[in-house]
Amino acid sequence: MMAAAHAPVTRSVMLPCPPARACEVFTGRISAWWPPARRHTGEADSTIVLSAVGRFFARGRAGTEIELGAVLAWEPPARLVLDWDPGTDREPPTRVEIRFTAEGAAGTRVSIVHGPTPANADLFDARAPRYDASGALVLAALEDAGRALNNE
Fold this sequence. Notes:
Layout: E1 9-15, H1 19-28, H2 30-33, E2 47-50, E3 55-59, E4 65-75, E5 79-84, E6 94-102, E7 108-115, H3 121-149
Antiparallel strand pairs: 1-7, 2-3, 3-4, 4-5, 5-6, 6-7
């Protein structure tokens, strides 16, 4: 059976904390846990900024900034929606939705759905395997950060 064309890349991870804390770790501590292999400045210690005012970017040691996308919806502790266009021009970005859902005593499921916009559906299909691999790295790093919450 063939996968549907333009199917979004979907991944999730559990964090051992309430949704508000999971959202704060994702947004407020993003520089601490974002994997070095996914830093578009090429510097493992670059600063990643995800801002309620709309910006999502990386800043290198010399102050150079690389736009990673734009924040379209900032609704803590429930969800974020981003246009994702790391280091490329703004046309056409893909869309990423991050949800923080309580799952009882287990904590919070952080779900990421990365999909196309109407302007880039064919390009998205070609890049989906790369987005999936990157998503795996990012969520593994977030999961590691979540495990560290137990030590705080």
